[in-house]
Pilin (Alteromonas lipolytica), 271 residues
Amino acid sequence: MMISMLLGLIITTGVIQVFVSTRSTNSLNQAISEVQEYGRYITLRLQDELREVGRYEQTLGNIDNSVDLVTESSFVLRQPVALAADYAVMGALGSLEGVGNASDELVVNLLAEQDCSGNRFGLAAPMQLHIVNHFFVEDGQLKCQGYSGRYLRGLTGNFIPSDEVVLLDGVQSMQIEYGLSGDITENDGRVIRYVDGSHLSNARLANMQVVAIRLALLVQSPPIKLQNLANEKVTLLSEAPLTLDKNHYYQVFNVAVALRNSINYVGSAAL
């Protein structure tokens, strides 16, 4: 009887171990699937958003002309990536380099019908105006907040900003690098080097233009115990390595976009 009980205990222990292992494997596979799905979604969305950065075509017939379009066009084309002090109404708003491993922030100018939240700022479709979109990470979420560029420049009435919209949950870090052209009067729009946000002010003073953006996102799954994995490190672009915990599955997603509107502007400025 004791031998039978011992064999039964061994078999039961084995079954429990198989069950626990299978459950852990299924949880990990589900976490991987979710993170990859989220990553594909946000990669495609950001590519679509960033391709329009710096866009302004005065020849379009559907631009609201209640302001000077020549001045507005010059502002958007010359400053596709906004910096602090660019806007008269909100001088602190601009692209920022995060301190240490903190996430970067991206503020961009473009001509569009609506901002990243769908706000048209009182204009009926298909009328377009200068739009400003602010991308940032807060409380583990990638968010965007839109503004009327005309309001920020002090040209129109008090258009309050759109409500923040969450683009993706589970984002632990966003790091950004900017591809710079040479002097816009001499360069053909090719990237001569990539820099982080701390170099943008000096680049503008040197008459250089942002013609590409590289962006890296660290996305995590909901809590899951990964007992068999040691703590690992991951590097986003040229930033210092980040140490990952064993309570989540992590994956890095990269987006690289050439700002075709800025490239065309650089090319025309060199003529």
User: Anything to note?
Assistant: Residues 26-270 form one domain.
